[in-house]
Amino acid sequence: MPERPPDGDGDRFGDLGAGAGSGRTPEGTPRGGQAGSAAERFAERDELDAAAESEKRPGPPRPSSRYAWFLGFVFVIVGAAALANQIVNLRDDSSGALKGPQPGSRLPAFAAPLATGDVEGDANVRQDAGGDDNAGAVPACEVKTEGVLNSCELRERPVVLTFVFDRAANCEPQVDRVERMKGSFPGVAFATVFFSRKDRAELEEIVRRREWTQPVAIDHDGAVSNLLGVGGCPVTVFALRGGKVMETKLGNLTEDQLRATVRRLQRRSGAAGS
Fold first, then answer.
1. 66 falls in which pLDDT band (50, 70, 90)?
2. How far, in Å, CA of 10 to CA of 8, rounded?
3. What is the rounded CA–CA span in Å between residue 65 and residue 74?
4. Which long-range contacts (CB under 8 A, 24 or more apart) does 73-77 make?
5. I need a labelling partner for 114 at 20 to 30 A (CA). Which of 38, 59, 94, 251 fits?
């Protein structure tokens, strides 16, 4: 019996034996035209199988359109969650920044042109004689003329002051609701501050089209909104006679909510009303 080569002798096909004319030329063909040994035939088959397998092997996976759509959806959800978180932080900010005047504070002085008047220019927000001339040539309380909303005059009665914007917001319906209920409270002053870059004529058209009868002041440069710390809309400020803020509410209010709050405002102001 022929002696078996020791283990680990290199060719794992060596124990199958060699046929006549074994071996291959450098070009890879059997020497002498012979088919070669069984080991060589199996080796050749292994090489061909490996080449075929390599051709079949897929490249790096590319995201399908469904997967790409899913990723886009996730990004939208994450962005929406971040925006919602910012809104919650704005509303829950214990410092009160951008949430309007705080209860107990006094409604500051301002004089702003009316949308239905003929006065042009930015609002006067100068608080006193020693104030900054850039805020107004004279203190706002002294600007008492037709075509101007003066908060110092509003403070002579209980006040409901609504703030609305016209950019990336739909706050005008809140003013509509105030309009529908304000006739029940003749002893209360109602007014709106409209932060907008539109021309006065455009804002006047909005006021007349929506049939707002309360005075609507134009806050072209945001000075009044900034003065009262208003950073969103709608914001409704309820102030007692004399200007002390009773309550500031963010967001839309129903007519019933408005009525209930105004009744409380009247009681605390000692004003007669329905």
1. low
2. 6
3. 14
4. none
5. 251
